[in-house]
Amino acid sequence: MQRKAQLILVYFIFIAILIYFSLPSLWLFLSVFNAHAAPFIEIPKKPTLINFVKVFKDYNFSTYLFNSVFVSTITMILVTLTASLAGYSLSRWQSKYKNHIIYSILLLRTIPTSATMIPIYSLMRTLHLRNSYLGLILIYTAGQLPFLIWLIEQFFDTIPPEMEEAAWIDGSSYLRTLFSIVMPIAKPGIAVIAILSFRAAWSESVLVLVLIDSEHLQTIPRAFYEAIRTMGGSYIEYRYEIVATMGLFFLLPLMIIFLITHKYFVKGMLGGAIK
Amino acid sequence: MGKRYRNASYPHQNECDIVRRSRYLFWGFLPAGILIVLFFITPAIWGVYSSMTNMALVGKAARHLQFIGFQNYLKLITDSAFFTAIMNSVKYVVGGAIIGQFLLGLGLALLLEYTEKKGIKGGNVVYGFVMLAWLTPALVSGFEWGAMYDYYYGTLNNILKLLGLSKINWLGKTPMLAVIIANIWQGTAFSMMVFDSALKTIPVELYEAAKMDGASHWQSIRYITLPLIKNIAIIDLINITMVTFGVFLMIMAITNGGPGMKTTTLSLYAYRAAFENYRIGYGCSIAMVLLAINLIFGFTYLKVLKKIS
């Protein structure tokens, strides 16, 4: 009897939490398949895929999709290369200042974009790097480096240094040893920072607002912002289903990436407080 | 992660090797170092400079850039909107992060742990939807909640109507509560994950011993679980405080800081000053205040982290 009462209580709490957490997401998913979605949650009477066609045909979504994939991919390549080199160097560096450097890197990571976005705007405007892929990619890369260098540095720490030394003694050059011995062992760690950097570039939505105006350079977050701003208003009927479809495209890769890497999220975000 | 080799030295090396290798390691660090200095540290320093100019995008100041010293900061102290924004940030952080995300996250982690132990099903569905909210980009979350709160057709008011209650003007009458509810919705997963993995590190033997001594479930939570996760709770609190203090996109999507200034937090105020009123120099001075506050959080965070690990 007590067990039954306990079960009822647990499921009561579960349902209350599920209603709170699932309603907004369910509304988004259902609206995508509705030809005319409203702000309240309803199962589409005639489910349709027309919205997927519409965003590409009428709302220029292929440009935004391309820009997002392009910017995120190049950022991922740049970050992966520079962060793994830097992480390895930091891991093998023998110095009493090493911990200072690692803590400074962690400190940089705690600075939010909102504290740097206006100076970044001002600087990039002065350098004429606004409205360019290059400016966006450089800012994205630099912004992610502190966290990812720190993450991959910890990974290199787990690879025994004796292996490289044995190769050096056999006459292999530093660079060759790095690429033929160390990097292959570090592959899983490098894969993780590649995925995380892609994810960060894909979802970044503040700096792209500040740095990109040109329509043909807009990424998905920038276009989505434009969509929520312009598709509503007092005299225009709000196109919820179109905005929802764009939102789904924005969200879906993040869901997939999370399923692949969710082990590393907590560890990374807590700065090593939990082993 | 197994064995760690941090600060381990190579077994066969002499002074000469160390110098030569340091040089080669320096080249390895250089590309990342240059990028961080140019596009991360330079903007921060540039912000100090910009905050002392009258840089603007429209009007006379747009054509004549002048160095004006601390005038922006003086203006800031007399700007009542600035203090409103700080108070809003405090409300947002205390209500959303410190009370909402923290307590709900801790409670969820304890509940999920408990149901898993007792073999009660359904916990992973709850976990999944809480995570999904966290994964949803801030702008998309703002769009979803904007629809939820819609006065005439929104899901929330429709539910109230079904229950025979009267509609609530969420965004007009209780806008701060509305954005805090949305913030808790989005942020709780982080604390839940943190406490979830912290609970898994507590050895089962401790609970078994307590049970044999006749401790109830609540007693073992109070006297075993909570003291053991205290440090992690502190880290989590600082973390979610920093994050919640810095974000503004979701508020921007739901209310754009309105009505009036009612939901304009400090970071949103910086954005609005710079990009809606086009006063870049003034916006930079707000950004520098944000930066200073965050550095205080950041140093505290590192200090606690060092103490714990």
Structural account:
The complex is a heterodimer of chains A (275) and B (309). With 275 residues, chain A is mostly helical. Chain A has two domains: 2-48, no CATH class; 56-269, MetI-like fold (Orthogonal Bundle), CATH 1.10.3720. Chain A is built from eleven helices and no strands. In chain A, helix 3 crosses helix 10 (220-230). The longest helix of chain A is centred in the first third of the chain and has 32 residues, at 61-92. The mean pLDDT of chain A is 88. Chain B is an all-alpha fold. Chain B folds into two domains: 15-50, no CATH class; 71-308, MetI-like fold. Chain B has helices spanning 15-50, 60-63, 71-77, 80-118, 123-135, 138-148, 155-162, 170-173, 175-200, 204-212, 217-228, 230-246, 249-254, 266-275, 280-308. In chain B, helix 4 (80-118) packs across helix 9 (175-200) and helix 12 (230-246) packs antiparallel against helix 15. The longest helix of chain B is centred in the first third of the chain and has 39 residues, at 80-118. Chain B is flat. At the A-B interface, helix 1, helix 3, helix 4, helix 5 and helix 6 of A face helix 1, helix 4, helix 5, helix 6 and helix 9 of B.
Can you lay out the helices and strands and say which pair or pack?
The complex is a heterodimer of chains A (275) and B (309).
Chain A: H1 2-32, H2 50-57, H3 61-92, H4 98-109, H5 113-126, H6 133-156, H7 162-169, H8 174-203, H9 207-211, H10 220-230, H11 240-269
Chain B: H1 15-50, H2 60-63, H3 71-77, H4 80-118, H5 123-135, H6 138-148, H7 155-162, H8 170-173, H9 175-200, H10 204-212, H11 217-228, H12 230-246, H13 249-254, H14 266-275, H15 280-308
Helix pairs in contact in B: 1-15, 4-9, 4-12, 4-14, 5-9, 9-12, 12-15, 14-15
Quick take:
The complex is a heterodimer of chains A (275) and B (309). Chain A is mostly helical.
Kindly list the characteristics that best describe this protein.
heterodimer; A: 275 residues; mainly alpha; MetI-like fold; 2 domains; B: mainly alpha; 15 helices; 0% strand
